[in-house]
Amino acid sequence: MADVQVTCINKQPRNSTHEGITHLGGNGWKWTRNEVIQSIRGKTNTFFTRVNGTRADIGVVDGQNGPYVRTYADGKWNDNLLALPECA
C-alpha cells in the first residue's frame, strides 16, 4: 500500500449546481475521484494533503448524493481539498 500526497484537484465547472471534485492529483499522477474512493475503500492506498505543514488524511464520506472525499485532521472532517490548486 502506498501513502500518496494529493497536491492538486479539478472541480466541476462553476456553472454546475454543485462544486464537486472530479480529479485528485500529485507529483506525476492524476486520478478520478471514483478511482481514489475505490482505492481508499479497497485499502490499496492511503491519501493525504498538507495544510499549513500539518498532515490531513483523506477519507470517504457517504453523502446524500453518493460518496465523496474529504480531509480529516485534528479529529474533524474539513474541506481542505477545495483550497488546493487546479491540476494541469
Automatic annotation (TrEMBL):
Entry superkingdom: Bacteria
Pfam family, one: DUF3892
Name of the protein this chain belongs to: DUF3892 domain-containing protein
Organism: Sphingomonas rubra
